[in-house]
Inverse folding.
């Protein structure tokens, strides 16, 4: 059986990665989305095992010590990581696995899986990103400021990814991602502006 493929989707907090992911999975149920573990508290509506596995810091540290995470990072005061076993199992079975992770984790994945396809989602502008983060209203002012600071660093690293997609219009952004995923023989465009 053909070996699977690893797809890394990264972009600043508030850029709409989660929404894009959900739309992509609805259109392509054959894709496998890795569910991360995190020490962050659940937001209203988030479900353990669907959005994340919500764990304590001690549980997270234990997973790190046991090499149960493929990559992990600290982000805005919380820890996030990709459980190793399910991803390796899916790849072995020839599945395409999608990781929706931040920059430090993406870099770790590119080191261990040089063939992984990196997609970076950009906001139309930093002002628009701030607006979206504040509109979400699920974080404290302090957390929003931390996320915005981090967003600047992440956007500065967009060139480390195979492609960049600007998320202005969700449908168009999704079309661009699909074009890259499902027409792999096409040369990869430098930047995909939508
Ligand atoms: P949020 O708290 O908004 O759900 O996620 C914060 C950031 O952590 C987002 O950029 C998200 O992509 C990233 N993230 C989610 N899961 C993981 C993971 O398993 N590993 C890493 N490195 N980042 C993750």
């Amino acid at each position: 059986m053909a070996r699977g493929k690893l797809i890394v989707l990264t972009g600043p907090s508030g850029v709409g990665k989660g929404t894009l992911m959900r739309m992509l999975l609805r259109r392509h149920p054959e894709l496998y989305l890795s569910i991360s573990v995190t020490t962050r508290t659940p937001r209203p509506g988030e479900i353990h095992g669907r959005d994340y596995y919500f764990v304590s810091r001690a549980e997270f540290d234990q997973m790190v010590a046991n090499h149960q995470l493929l990559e992990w990072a600290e982000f805005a005061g919380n820890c996030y990581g990709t459980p190793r076993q399910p991803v390796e199992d899916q790849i072995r079975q020839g599945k395409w696995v999608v990781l929706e992770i931040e920059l430090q984790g993406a870099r770790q994945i590119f080191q261990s899986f040089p063939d992984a396809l990196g997609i970076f989602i950009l906001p139309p502008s930093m002002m628009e990103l701030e607006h979206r983060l504040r509109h979400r209203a699920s974080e404290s002012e302090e957390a929003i400021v931390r996320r915005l600071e981090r967003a600047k660093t992440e956007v500065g690293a967009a060139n480390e990814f195979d492609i960049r997609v600007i998320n202005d219009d969700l449908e168009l952004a999704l079309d661009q991602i699909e074009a890259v995923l499902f027409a792999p023989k096409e040369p990869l465009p430098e930047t995909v502006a939508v």
Notes: The radius of gyration is 16 Å. The CA atoms of residues 89 and 95 lie 9 Å apart. Residues 5-193 form a domain with the Rossmann fold fold (CATH 3.40.50.300).
